[in-house]
Write a structure and sequence with these properties.
Elements lengths: L2 E5 L3 H13 L3 E5 L2 H10 L4 E4 L8 H4 L1
Parallel strand pairs: 1-2, 1-3
Length: 64
Amino acid sequence: MARILIIEDSDTSREMLKLILETKDHQVITAAGGDEGIHALRENPVDLVITDICMPGKDGVATI
């Protein structure tokens, strides 16, 4: 089991990825944007970050 952070501005895509990963017993944290994702990562260390590249505000490249 891995702890995974998903950073995705699309609600539908974010929830779909979360559900798929949870069915494989992964612990999933989600964020709707780059700034929220950075905050979530500081609060919850994870094994893997999956991020969208094109997002409003802080995009995926800037977040990485």
